Amino acid sequence: MSKSCKNCSAAFEDTKEDLEFYDRVSPVINGIKYPIPAPTLCPDCRLQRRLVWRNEKSLYRNKCDKTGQEIISWIAPDKPQKTYKKDVWWGDTWDARSYGRDFDFERPFFDQLEELIKEVPWLDMLTDNTFNSDYVNYCNNAKDCYLIYASNNNESCMYSSYIWDCDDCIDCLQAFDCELCYSCIDVNNCYGCKYSKNCTNCNNCTFCENCQGCNDCFGCVNLVNKKYCFQNEQLTKEEYEKKLAEMQLDSYAKTKEIREFFAKHRLEFPMRFAQIVNCENCTGNALRNSSNTQEAYDSSDIEDSKWVMIGADVRDCYDISGCEKLELCYNTVVVGIPATRVLFSAYTWKGINEVLYSVLSPGAQNCFGCASLYKGQYCILNKQYTKQQYEQLVPKIIEYMQKTGEWGEFFPATLSPFDYNETIANDHFPMSREQVLAKGWRWRDADKKEYMPTDYQLPDSITEASDEVLQQICGCETCGKNYKIIAPELKFYKRHNIPVPKKCSDCRHEDRMKMRNPNRLHSRSCAKCGCEIKTTYAPSKPEIVYCESCYLKEIY
User: For residues 454 and 482, is the Cβ–Cβ distance under 8 A?
Assistant: First the structure.
């Protein structure tokens, strides 16, 4: 059934399978099912609304509202939310149920939840088991890391997002089991690679794309198990090393020139329609070990699901983002480990079950409309009830929300404690300040103190960079924001002959994001055999796109 999105007016369809899913996950209380209606927003607008809740990179100096200690927090100090440092928030010196309140059947549910979200203290950041890594978020097991986000099990890494099990990597996006890599995207088990994308099991490769098992290659595309290749031409070791030295990779200007050349050079080679590995009946991109799943991105081990972004070990779920170990969940962000039957919720993890419309409520069981509540059970708006009372009141609230039009809708963007440009919604759905405010959402204006004019000019070559660089305030050549080079960073650049970047880390991240296709499928024809394919390469993009069969024949 085709209909129009109430936000952007785009046409979208509810399939028979979709409607069956909504019925399957509809909550049952006292033997009565409360049907979840089909969505009113298109998949993109639903994703955007969820991502407004995911602030990965915007960190601030703040104070714990319980102890007064200075902390680094994802909540800005001028926000109404209180913030507790993690040992206090997880501790037993306070009880989130003391903020509980009765449900008011004269007011919209979302208004009541918004008040609770603003009053109950928030956790300072989402981190666990970090050492000498104060400036990280959404991270577990980080040692000596700086400004890395949504990443686990890393050591001595900086300015990166979505990296796992990496050592000594800088400026990477979607890197797994890598070491000594710089400015790489979608790389797996790589060592000493620079400026490379979609490479696996490669060593010392520079400006390479779609390469597997390659060593010491430069400017190459679609190579397998090659060594000493320069722009796909086979050379001897001596010839290769001479060519590589001529590239002057110590120079920022020369490296920028090569980057621009390679962006055009890669267009001469066919691209695989999607990075989908060991999957059956699946669509999306960067997807592994999955089955019967549609429109899944940057995910693995997904079954019988749809519209998944950054998921792992997921069964029978729709519209989930940043989730792991889920089953029968719908319209959630940062949920799991594990979770069952969680609906319309954010930041709820640690073995949760039957949770609806709740925020930052780890360990919750049978909760509705709760916020910052650890291990709550039979709570509504953080107020404690008995099982019998809970099962009597929740159906009344659902029926009330059906009348107000709130039932079946995710939280409005205005309920998020984060402004639009603080979140990854702005990475995936970029908007101007004016566009955001026109929607009634919030925008965080830049701090003028971070954009002070500077006369300092970074040296072009890393060979000219002395420790004086560490004392200087640099100005980003793109946005003008001030930034500093830190000692471990400069040491890395010197060791690997990499010029000091003249852009701030935010603009470098934005550049990397632009090098990945948006998580959106388009219909195209294979440029080789003409068969129809579903790909993230839009028809307007210049790449030559092959179906799986034609691509494999090309490179093997």
Answer: yes
> Residue 63's pLDDT is what?
97
SS3 483: strand
Tokens of 407: 């039932």
The answer to whether 218 and 208 have CB atoms below 8 angstroms apart is yes
pLDDT for residue 195: 99
pLDDT at 449: 86
Question: What DSSP line would sit under 125-175, residue for residue?
Answer: --EEEEES--SEEEEEEEES-EEEEEEEEEES-EEEEEEES-BS-BS-EEE
Kindly state the tokens that stand for 157. 């890494």
Given a contact cutoff of 8 angstroms between Cβ atoms, the answer to whether 287 and 275 are in contact is yes
Q: Which residues contact 49 (CB under 8 A, 6 or more apart)?
A: 41, 410, 411, 412, 413
Q: In 3-state terms, the chain is what percent helix, strand and coil (to 5)? A: 25, 35, 40
What are the angstrom distances between the C-alpha of 426 and each of 53, 322, 418, 420? 11, 16, 12, 6
One DSSP character per residue, 180-204 reads S-BS-EEEES-BS-BS-EEEES-BS
Contacts of 455 (CB under 8 A, 6+ apart): none
Residue 492 dihedral angles phi and psi, to the nearest 5°: -65, -45
Three-class SS of residue 25?
helix
pTM (global) more than 0.85? yes
Q: Low-confidence residues of the chain, pLDDT below 70?
A: 1
Per-residue pLDDT, 448: 87
Cis amide bond preceding 453, omega within 30: no
Three-state DSSP at 119 gives helix
